[in-house]
Amino acid sequence: MLTSIMKMLARKESLSMAQLAHEVGCTIKEIESALEQMEHMGYIHRQLFGQSCSGSSCGTTHCESCGFASSEAFIVWELTERGKTMVDTQSPK
């Protein structure tokens, strides 16, 4: 499943979590868990876009300390160099 997700991220298409889960054939919860795992392993990284908390210790789209929450913010997952290398080695030549 992790390799399938990385291959989809390599296509640089804009997919929702539901679309990504459908393409891979699993649940949104499983996709979220896989993305966190791949981020921890250094294969992907997240970028936050949109409005965010302006607090000096924050900068997130949902802040527990100040209560800021924005529906206009979204996350983009991108492959790191390590992730790109993994996709390249898994792709048929």
Brief synopsis:
It contains four helices and two strands, in the order αααββα. With 93 residues, it is an alpha+beta fold. The mean pLDDT is 81.
Structural commentary:
By secondary structure, the chain is α+β, with helices and mostly antiparallel strands. The protein has 4 helices and 2 strands. The protein has helices at 2-10, 17-24, 28-41, 81-90, and strands spanning 44-49, 74-79. It has a two-stranded antiparallel ribbon. The longest helix is centred in the middle third of the chain and has 14 residues, at 28-41. The protein is globular and about 30 Å long.
Supply the key terms.
93 residues; alpha+beta; Arc Repressor Mutant, subunit A; two-stranded antiparallel sheet; 4 helices; globular
Q: In the CATH hierarchy, what is the architecture at level 2?
A: Orthogonal Bundle
- The end-to-end distance, rounded to whole angstroms, is 21 Å
Strand order of the largest sheet: 1-2
- What does the main sheet amount to? 2 strands, antiparallel
Number of continuous helical runs: 4
Uncertain residue ranges: none
**Main CATH class:** Mainly Alpha
